[in-house]
Specification:
This protein is of the alpha/beta class. Helix content is about 30%, strand content about 30%. α1 runs antiparallel to α2. The radius of gyration is 18 Å and the shape is globular. The structure holds 1-O-pyrophosphono-5-O-phosphono-alpha-D-ribofuranose and uracil. Uracil (URA) binds next to α6. Uracil binds next to α6.
Length: about 210
């Protein structure tokens, strides 16, 4: 695959361990959901490395010191429905005050084209750092359209976080949105004829919510 400056693929042993269980078809819904959250939490630490900090004065029991904090209300999370919802608690565990917007997208199973069916974003989102989250980056169509939707509504600083990606999805997003850092836990081999990631983990939404 071509190298992209805005794509970061984690190669953390703990993530590898957890993803091996996530992929297993015998892993049940509860464990699957917990793993998605845990992996997201680890990814959040990494993808927040360059987040803006502001100086604050803090009084310790001994003296006053200048410390650094993430500014109040500067971060938003936007899951792509449905499967992205499974990652929200993973970000909230690290950053509980992040407001949450929702973008509803579904992929037409025949054409694989994404369709937006819902969008509700927190007020002032255009001034926040937005974490767009979706566990699966397959053809990249859903992520590209969600990024377009966020930009159309004024978002300027967006990061995309996906657990598993296919090379096609990475290329599509990195080419269409070179200004968006893309954080991915694992790069898989490719896609099958139905647009499913190989080896992948199957349908993330169905496995999270037990719909199949
Ligand atoms: C899945 C997944 C992504 C999309 C990825 O959602 O959660 O949003 O497919 O595929 P793409 O990169 O080819 O667009 P799906 O459309 O299955 O909807 P769901 O989350 O409601 O199950
Ligand atoms: N959506 C999923 O949930 N899984 C895939 O492998 C591809 C798209």
């Amino acid at each position: 695959m071509k190298q992209f400056k805005n794509v970061f693929i984690f190669d953390h042993p703990l993530i590898k361990h957890k993803i091996s269980i996530l992929r297993d078809k015998n892993t049940g819904m509860k464990e699957f959901r917990e793993l998605v959250e845990e992996i997201t939490t680890i990814m959040t630490y990494e993808s927040m490395r360059d987040v803006e900090l502001v100086p604050v004065q803090v009084e310790t029991p001994l003296e006053t010191t200048t410390q650094y904090r993430v500014p109040e209300d500067s971060i938003a999370i936007v899951p792509i429905l449905r499967a992205g919802l499974g990652m929200v608690n993973g970000v909230h565990r690290v950053f509980p005050t992040a407001k949450v917007g929702h973008i509803g997208m579904y992929r037409d199973e025949d054409t694989l084209e994404p369709h937006e069916y819902y969008c509700k974003l927190p007020e002032g989102i255009e001034n926040k750092t937005v974490f767009l989250i979706d566990p699966m980056l397959a053809t990249g169509g859903s992520a590209c359209d969600a990024l377009d939707a966020l930009k159309k509504r004024g978002c300027k600083k967006i990061k995309l976080m996906s657990i598993i990606a296919a090379p096609q999805g990475i290329e599509a997003v990195a080419t269409a949105h070179p200004d968006v850092p893309v954080y991915v836990s694992t790069l898989d081999r490719g896609l099958n004829e139905h647009g499913y990631i190989l080896p992948g983990l199957g349908d993330a939404g169905d496995r999270l919510y037990g719909t199949k």
